[in-house]
């Protein structure tokens, strides 16, 4: 431009996502994160979500990224400098979680959606005559439209609750499976002779089994289900830094298809700290291998780099635990069996049905075991209450001195009556509890009923 500023014209690729909505949402999202959340995103000068213009294409005009790609400097940066970058990104992600967003979907300006309801506005006070106000509209999440999903009719939001959101994901996958006679190639699977072949029947069965428990395995903590905007592709080529001060982030790009979904599905480690190797568990410091001294110089360097990468990965989690426990808890939930089932269930059309089936079987077994243990614990607790009430000791077998017999008999009778009044809701249950009563005087049968 005449004033020396760089301007970039961005035109969508054919696979960029949902036409019209993706461009409108990207423009609004960059404005929101830049000017409301204070996260460095490109300034938007103008855009068109229609092809009815001189360019004959959708486009966004935005300022240049400024700075240099972090990827050009990352390998030469010290681990301390890398940690500073991670701290900054953690601060941005905390801002994402702190934002008050009313429902799941994607961000838009009110003027770009037909008659949005007051509940869709991020600030309900702006719901009247505020064309530039931010609202939540249909999702631009690529998972809803990739691999031919855009050819199927389904609910694309917005969704007021996490339950409606995850049920829509499952319904979308079912609709795609039912319509298709073949399925997209499964990631990481070599489908040669005598290898696994996707089955429509199995995919449908797995989703139907999942739907039986889908809303029951969501996080118990409502904070983990809050609608959350999240940039899930923070790799070193999407982050621009000041070359004279490499730890200062000046811009983050690639906001296309950034969407609002429940936090437990959004939270993830930034891509730039992912690495090849075992993920460290727990909070103990990572250590060098026991045979480090016997390694070659090259192997020692590799071991040191792996330990440094593992440490950075864990430090991110520690930072989140201190700065934004909700994100740390969401990461922990995602790694749990319930979290893995919920996450993978959103891609059954393409992949993963045998894995999800196995997880559902494990979930059923674990749930049954938990119920058995809870039932056993409840029985132990009841026995403890009874013994405490009559003044006996744990493990008491009912024997008392002859002189104490009338006292204990009276206590037991009173205790049993109180117990039956507390726990027997019907005459049938009362009869069952009487039969189960552990202290029965065989020599002098009780007359209580």
From TrEMBL:
InterPro entries: Aminoglycoside_PTrfase, Kinase-like_dom_sf, Mito_inheritance_9. GO terms for cellular component: mitochondrion. Pfam families: APH. Residues 209-261 form the Aminoglycoside phosphotransferase domain. It is found in: Mitochondrion. GO terms for molecular function: transferase activity. Keywords: Mitochondrion, Transferase, Transit peptide. Its main location: mitochondrion. It comes from the Eukaryota. SUPFAM superfamilies: Protein kinase-like (PK-like) (SSF56112). Belongs to the AIM9 family. This is Altered inheritance of mitochondria protein 9, mitochondrial. It comes from Westerdykella ornata.
């Amino acid at each position: 431009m005449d004033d020396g500023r760089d301007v970039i014209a961005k035109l969508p690729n054919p696979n960029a996502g949902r036409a019209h909505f993706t461009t409108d949402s990207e423009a609004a999202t960059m404005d929101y994160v830049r000017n409301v959340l204070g996260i460095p995103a490109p300034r938007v000068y103008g855009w068109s979500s229609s092809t009815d213009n001189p360019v004959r294409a959708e486009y966004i005009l935005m300022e240049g990224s400024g700075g240099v790609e972090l990827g050009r400097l990352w390998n030469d940066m010290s681990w301390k400098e890398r940690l500073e970058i991670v701290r900054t990104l953690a601060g941005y992600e905390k801002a994402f979680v702190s934002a008050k967003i009313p429902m799941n979907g994607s961000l838009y300006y009110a003027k770009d959606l037909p008659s949005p309801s007051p509940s869709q506005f991020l600030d309900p006070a702006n719901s009247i005559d505020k064309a530039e106000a931010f609202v939540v509209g249909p999702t631009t999440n690529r998972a809803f439209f990739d691999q031919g999903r855009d050819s199927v009719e389904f609910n694309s939001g917005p969704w007021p609750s996490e339950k409606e959101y995850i049920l829509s994901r499952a319904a979308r996958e079912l609709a795609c499976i039912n319509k298709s006679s073949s399925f997209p190639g499964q990631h990481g699977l070599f489908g040669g002779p005598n290898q696994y072949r996707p089955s429509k029947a199995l995919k449908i069965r797995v989703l139907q089994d999942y739907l039986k428990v889908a809303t029951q395995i969501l996080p118990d903590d409502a904070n983990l289900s809050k609608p959350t905007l999240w940039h899930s592709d923070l790799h070193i080529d999407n982050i621009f830094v000041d070359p004279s001060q490499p730890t200062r982030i000046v811009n983050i790009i690639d906001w296309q298809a950034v969407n609002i979904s429940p936090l437990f599905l959004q939270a993830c480690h930034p891509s730039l700290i992912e690495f090849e190797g075992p993920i460290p568990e727990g909070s103990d410091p990572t250590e060098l291998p026991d045979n480090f001294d016997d390694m070659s110089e090259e192997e020692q360097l590799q071991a040191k780099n792996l330990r440094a990468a593992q440490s950075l990965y864990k430090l991110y989690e520690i930072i989140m635990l201190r700065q934004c426990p909700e994100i740390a808890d969401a990461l922990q939930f995602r790694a749990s069996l319930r979290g893995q089932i919920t996450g993978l269930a959103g891609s059954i059309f393409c992949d993963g049905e045998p894995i999800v089936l196995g997880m559902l079987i494990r979930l059923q077994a674990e749930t049954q075991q938990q119920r058995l243990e809870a039932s056993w614990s409840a029985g132990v607790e009841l026995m403890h209450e009874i013994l405490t009430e009559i003044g006996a000791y744990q493990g008491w077998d009912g024997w008392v001195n002859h002189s104490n017999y009338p006292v204990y008999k009276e206590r037991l009778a009173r205790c049993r009556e109180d117990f039956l009044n507390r726990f027997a809701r019907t005459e049938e249950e009362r009869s069952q509890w009487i039969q189960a009563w552990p202290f029965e005087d065989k020599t002098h049968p009780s007359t209580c009923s």
